[in-house]
Structures are given as C-alpha cells and as structure tokens.
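Researcher: Next sequence.
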Amino acid sequence: MRSSLLLLPGPLPDAPRPTVDVVRVDSSAIVLMVAVFLASAVEMIEALTIVVAAGVSRGWRSALEGGAAAIVVLGVLVAALGPAIVRWVPINSLRVVVGAILLVFGLQWLRKAVLRATGYKPKHDENAIFAKQVEDLEGREPRSSGRDPVGFAVAFKGVFLEGVEVVIIVLTLGTTDHNLGLAALAAAAAAVIVAAIGVVVARQLAGVPENTMKMAVGLMLVSFGSFWSGEGIGVRWPGSDLAIPVLVALYGAVTFIVVRALNAQKARETRKVGRAELA
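Model: Next structure:
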C-alpha cells in the first residue's frame, strides 16, 4: 500500500516588496537649482544678444550654427570633467576649493550688482551692446552667400565665452553637492527658456531685470561658498542643509543695508554737487 504525505502550507517567506525610487529634494537642492538657473539665464541673455546681432548682420544660419556648436562643446566639457572630479578628488578638499571659488564668483557678482543698484556703476544695457555688435559686424568684410564664417565665429565665441562661467558654476555646485545632473538640467532649462524668449523679444532685451538676477545669484553663490568651505574644514552647520537658506537671508540682509547706505551717500553727494553749482 502506497503511503502519501500531506504537505501543509507553512508560513511563506516575505516576498520582496517592489521598491519605488523617491527623488529627495531638500533645501540644498532647491537653492542649487535656483542658483544655477539664474546664473545660466544671466549669461545666456548676454550670449543671446551676440547671437541675435550676428544673425541680423551676417545671416541667421551661420549665427545659429555657431551658437549650437558652442553649446555642444560646453556640454562635452561638463560630461567629461564632472564625473572625473567627483571620482578622483577627496570630498573635503573639493568642498574647500569649490567654496573658495564660489565665494570669489559670488562676491564679484554681488559687488557689481550693488554698484549698479546704487548708481556708482552703469547698468548693463543689452540694447546698447546689441547696437554696437551690429555696427562692428556690418563694418567687416561683406557677407558671403552661403555659410558666413564671420557670423559663425562671432556667435560661437560669444556663446562659448559666456557659457564657460556657466560650466564652472555647474561643475562646482553640481559636483560638491553630488547633484551634477540636477545642476546641468537647471542650466539646460535656462538656456532653452532664454532661447525661446529670444525668439519672441529678439532685440528687446533691456527689459530683463538682469541686475536683480545677478544680485540673487551672487547671494546664493556666496552662501554656498560659505557653507561648503565650512564643511570642508569641519564646521557642523546647525540644521545641516537648512543652514543654506539662512545664509542667503543673512547675506541678503547685509546687502540690503549696504545698498541703503550707498544710496544715502549717493544722495548726499548729489545734494553737495547741486549746492556747489548754485553757489
């Protein structure tokens, strides 16, 4: 007689639950996106002025090809240098060096923005720059019937030189915060939006609040520079990444006080000159 065994089902092992990737967006990532986007937008506005001038004077085909070629070269630089920096440079050393670079960049942007806001330095007039570019280009050799090498070269040089600063900001912010993809995406978004706006407004670029954008970027770069320099030398910031918005607010308050003081000084100087002329 054949015996049979009845196998009763026991507790089954827990099946692996499907995992869902969750994108973590913290205050550091948000400030990083805004900083890279605004910095890229400012530089792309200046590059757009050169491309439009080259297109109007020398032909749109060559100007657009030159600008596109420069963007491709800049993208290759980010793709080549970014992963190498992250892989081979120790994180603390990277933070100190990058923090110092961002402090230099940020302070330069802040200084220019404050001087322009208070009248001690003339504001950046994109329309005047556009007119000068067109005048210079029209005074060169006659435009060729096909691809114009002058238009291509001018557009390439303008976009590349303005874009190098964007590349530096993308690499420094992205590699230090391990968010190179996010920084590159923010820069690309700024380039696309500025290009789209440029198609509509073309020569009417003076209405863009460039100085306000530069001041905001300067505040963010100085804040990131302070934060990462501190982390690189062992400072433990209260609240970790939440310290970055606090630093932005702190530097913003100091900048506001400086602007008010310089405006008051400018007003006193103006009144003094007026009284001297009346005397």
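Model: Residues 12 and 19 are 20 Å apart (CA to CA). The mean pLDDT is 77.
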